[in-house]
Amino acid sequence: MGLLLWGIFGIEMNVWLDAILRLQIIVIIMTVTVMGLIYLERKFVGRIQMRLGPMRTGPYGTLQSIADAIKLLTKEDLRPSTADFWLFELAPYVTFVPVFMTLMALPFMEGWFVRDLQLGVFYIVAISGVTVIGYLMAGWASDNKYALLGAVRSAAQLISYELPLILSVLAVSMVAGSLNLNEITLQQDTVPNIVMQPLPFVILLTAVLAELSRRPFDIPIGESELVGGPWVEYSGIRWSIIFALTEYAGLWGFSILGALVFLGGWQWPFGTSSFWGDFDFVYQLFLVGTKSFLIILMVMWISATFPRLRIDQLMAFCWKILLPFGFIQVLINGIVLTYEPPEVLRDVLLFGTSSALLVAMGYVIYMATKQPPREERISPGLAARSVQ
Amino acid sequence: MIGVLKSLGVTMGTFFRKPVTIQYPTEHKKVPERDRAFPILLWDFEHDESFCTGCHACERACPVECMTVTMMDNPKHAEGTSKRRKILDEFFIDYGRCMRCNICVEVCNFDAIAMNNTWTGHELSTVDRQDLVMDRDQLLGLSKNMQIRPWTPE
After folding, report:
1. Domain total for chain B?
2. What CATH number has the domain bearing residue B108?
3. Per the domain annotation, does B43 fall within a domain?
């Protein structure tokens, strides 16, 4: 490993000191990225709504996030008198820590992690599911009916959408033959996985939207009905930990996961090559950044476009569409890979089946939207009564 | 399903459209010609005096009694340079009380009072209510300095 940063931290160093230094780097990059993402989202959504977004603080509003951060950190930290003290105070950290822990297994460039885990993908999807407990704690401890409703909804939603997320990543790691993120990325040196597995990419994108409670799936937060979901009662630094850090660090982490697993991470789109030897990490960082940026923009675009789903639509979409198609994809991948066909045939087969499944999924969703409302299907008499 | 993809196209379309935002304190939207801000007095450049003769018509018509007018003999009439026998001496309008009803403009016999149709009639916030009581020179100032816009479309 001739990488510069590896060189700094790869010298004979205490394991713990090494890990702490790497974590420090991630903390700093994460904070800056989160502030940048908040600014980016406000600008991007503003332009989509034909507004300008923040313009006053600094040139083109670039200092808006810093001003917001200072405001949030100096704001009074309120706690309702009837709140459960320990649960209320700890909930933001329980929400945030799992999201931060997912960042530890992500390679930001070739071979640079906090820890190189053989079960990296498994670790990430497992640990990011713990966030639910934080939401439930926050909702329960706030002693507020809206917070509790939001917490229960987010528990239902996050646990449901965990499964398609796992299945989509599993399908890809079957193709790659590894759960190690570094190896999955290295294996995509010629063709990124999105070409061979388009369906899992779509499933992952949808599941990530739901996992982060973003707009089409923001039932737990639902400003207009639940006034903010599990964190109605939070303010100041605790709110900023929950909202800003968890949501945007999660978005960042999942987008990097998507970029590594599906878009080929630090590899160039057509074949990899080492241009600058020791300084390869410059373009590797650039490529990972660009690819994750594209996914982030995609997520922001989707969440700026669609209205909120109903809870039954959300659940039906997960259990009746995403999950079966995820299972079928895993099954087909298993069958294709078991017979070990020659590499070209294997790629063609994987691409063909996955694209066919994607089209089939689109058709199923299309047919589902064409259906008459549930009341009419089940009992015409009931529907007629409800019309009156 | 097709609608979903279409809606994505629509939002991308609006993304590339020009934002409609007007950055207010530095940039002003053009107010309409018939905009009714606060009443101001007009200046007669021909005789170099105000159109207003201090006849109290507007003061009597004002529903919120925000005006105070006093009249005096016109010195220019004595000299023979003006037809107006009487001219206004003092004229106060309390902008804090005025409700911009346009009645003073309607009742004026000499077309001497008009509603301000520029941004100067809207951005009038002060820290003291007394600053909203305008005297004669302030009311005539805009017209005298040619800072008003014509009330009829060009």
Report:
1. 1
2. 3.30.70.3270
3. yes
Provide the residue range defining the domain that includes B124.
33-144
Is A306 in Cβ contact with B1 (below 8 Å)? Answer: no
Q: What is the dihedral of CA B75, B80, B82, B85, to 10 degrees?
A: 60
Reading the block at residue A298, the tokens are 């995609």
Q: Which residues of B touch A302 (CB under 8 A)?
A: 8
Distance in angstroms (rounded) separating the CA atoms of residues A3 and A107: 13
Rounded-to-integer distance, Cα A160 and Cα A155, Å? 8
**Is A301 in Cβ contact with B11 (below 8 Å)?**
yes
pLDDT score, position A11: 53
| Interchain contact, A52 vs B23, CB within 8 Å | yes
- Answer yes or no: is B25 within a domain: no
Question: Looking at CA atoms only, how far is residue B28 from chain A in angstroms?
Answer: 16
What is the domain partition of chain A in residue ranges? Answer: 78-387
Interface predicted TM-score (ipTM): 0.74
Say whether pLDDT at A182 is over 90.
no
Residue B105 lies in a domain: yes
pLDDT tens figures, A261-278: 888 888 887 766 666 767
**A42, β-bridge pairs:** none
B79 belongs to a structural domain: yes
- Mutation target to probe the A interface, by most A beta carbons within 10 A, among B11, B16, B18, B23 is B11
Q: What is the pLDDT of residues A43-99, one digit of tens each?
A: 999 999 988 888 888 888 889 989 988 988 888 888 888 888 888 888 888 888 998
Q: How far apart are the C-alpha atoms of B117 and B40, rounded to whole Å? A: 10
Look up the pTM and report it: 0.81
CB atoms within 10 A of CB B44: 15
Q: Please, are residues A316 and A226 in contact by the beta-carbon 8 Å criterion?
A: no
